Amino acid sequence: MKLEFTDETAKELIDSGEMVVVDFGADWCGPCKMVGPMVEKLAEKYADKVKIGKINIDDYDVLAGTYGVRNIPTILFFKDGEVIDKQVGATQETKLEEKIENLINT
Fold first, then answer.
1. Cis peptide before 73 (omega within 30 of 0)
2. 69-84: per-residue pLDDT in tens?
3. Residue 59: how many CB atoms within 10 A of its CB?
4. DSSP H or E stretch at residue 96
5. From 40's CA, which of 32, 67, 87, 90 has a CA 20 to 30 Å away?
6. Catalytic residue ranges
C-alpha cells in the first residue's frame, strides 16, 4: 500500500538512508492521476524492500522546494540519503519498475 508522506516523514526516511521513492503530485494534476495507480501497485510489490509514497505538494511543499521539484508528477529515487534517479512527467509502469530495480541493485 502506498504511503502518504508529509515533508517530515519523507525527510526522516531519506535521512535514515533507507531506499525511498517519493511521488510528488497534486489532486488536480491529470498526469499525476495516471501515474498514481502505477506507483501504488509498485509500492505493494516492493513493500519489503523500498519505502514508496506520495507527497501532495499543495499540502506539503518544503521537500519539493529542497529538491527543486518544479513539474509534477516528479518521482525521486533516494538511496543512502541521496537522489540517485528521477522521473519527471507521466511514464510507463515498466520504466518505473526498472528504476526501482536499479535502486535496489546499485
1. yes
2. 999 999 999 999 999 9
3. 11
4. helix 93-105
5. 67
6. 29, 32
